[in-house]
Amino acid sequence: MTKEKRQRKILLVDDEAGFTDLMRDLLQMDNYEVEVANDGQEGLEKVQSFMPDVIISDVVMPRLSGFEMFKRVKGIPETSSIPFLFITGFQDERVLAEARKVGVFGILRKPIDIEQIENRLKELTKDQD
């Protein structure tokens, strides 16, 4: 008897509706359960109720940036172990410097390669089986 893998949960946080629609559809085709938030504040509100396996987040957003959301999520014991995957359209060195300052070392740049995201998601969830 084979053990059925449980469906992985992804919280997708980005203020670009076209991007989140496309990503949600692609991730759902890969059998992920996807919840969408339109900015870091909404993402923060959904984290504890949805309890995702991974958070995919934009960096620059209104109300609350991806890095600020990251710091707050990591500061809550129940959510501190949730891995983040950041995606940004900015090529700015200040963004990368801010990422290192808060403890983020992996950022994918838009336009994204779905295969790259799939590989990163497999890496981030492999210990959760």
Describe this structure in words.
It is globular and about 40 Å long. It has a single domain (9-128), classed as Rossmann fold (3-Layer(aba) Sandwich). Helix 2 runs parallel beside helix 3. Strand 3 (54-58), helix 3 (66-74) and strand 4 form a beta-alpha-beta unit. The model has no long low-confidence stretch (mean pLDDT 85). It has 129 residues and is of the alpha/beta class. Helix content is 43%, strand content 18%. Strands 2-1-3-4-5 form a five-stranded parallel sheet, with helices on both faces. The longest helix has 13 residues, at 17-29.
- Quote the beta fraction: 15-25%
- Under the CATH scheme, which architecture would be assigned? 3-Layer(aba) Sandwich
Contiguous uncertain segments of 5+ residues: none
Radius of gyration: 14 Å
**Helix content estimate:** 40-55%
How confident overall, as mean pLDDT? 85
The shape is globular
The H/E string reads EHEHEHEHEH
Largest sheet: 5 strands, parallel
- Which CATH top level class fits? Alpha Beta
End-to-end gap: 17 Å
Give the helix tally: 5
CATH superfamily, by name, is: Response regulator
- CATH topology (fold) name: Rossmann fold
Task: Record the strand order, biggest sheet.
Answer: 2-1-3-4-5
The total strand number stands at 5
Structural class: alpha/beta
**Number of domains as seen in the coordinates:** 1
